[in-house]
Design goal:
The chain has 269 residues and is α/β, with parallel strands linked by helices. The protein has helices at residues 2-15, 31-36, 88-91, 93-101, 159-172, 192-201, 211-219, 244-268; strands spanning 22-26, 38-44, 62-68, 71-77, 105-114, 124-132, 177-183, 205-207, 223-233. The model has no long low-confidence stretch (mean pLDDT 92). The protein binds hypoxanthine (HPA).
Amino acid sequence: MYAKIQETATWLKARISTQPETAIVLGTGLGKLADEIEVKDRIPYSEIPNMPVSTVEGHSGCLLIGKLGGKDILAMQGRFHFYEGYSMKEVTFPIRVMYELGIKTLFVSNAAGGTNPTFKIGDLMIITDHINFFPEHPLHGPNFPTGPRFPDMSEAYDKQLVALADEIAKEKGIEVQHGVYLGTQGPTFETPAEYKMFRILGADSVGMSTVPEVIVAHHCGIKVFGMSIITDIGVEGKIVEVSHEEVQKAANAVQPLMAEIMREMIKRS
Ligand code: HPA
């Protein structure tokens, strides 16, 4: 695996003329942020050696190199989900490559179901912590030398970046929630009993991504900031049928606000 990471990083270093220190993982329906990037190079995953290829509808599968908020950035348009059949090593492969490329800060976004009863569809939630509910751990196996065998997880989401996001949201009059994101394997959305269980466990939102990437980024010493768009509600008495299309629609409606916060954060951090 390490040799493959090296090979991919070497290939990308030769292709990319900038040295970005900021990376973004664009989640479901969050193409708006991609539209804000001054794209200098768009590299389909299929051209990148060793890169898994994304299959889900709405995930186009390109690495974008460009500028956002005046900074050189690298963005993943389309990510790899465990439910697609990828191993955890594949899901987190691009993060390991990012580390080799010199990325210092990672911005992640996702669509999620709200389990906090005060949340409503279209809310933006700053992720302050997570619960790893995936059946396989991304650091399972021999330890990578980027971090310790038993990594500390007391601050997986950088507190300074959360404070910066709060400051920006306040300045711009954008309402934000804060909470714990629970990452689970999918591909089913939750039954009412499962949403209830996740709430009891301490989750404010639940989704099928992000946690593996954040764990690996943290193990690489990359600072992480993450945000969820609440696209449906998993609260007793408020649960209605949910589909991928509805999730995308709800995400599309609110993504300009998230894009605004992320752009400004990148500019100032
Ligand atoms: N559950 C899991 N994943 C999700 C949800 C949900 O309710 N909404 C968007 N992604």
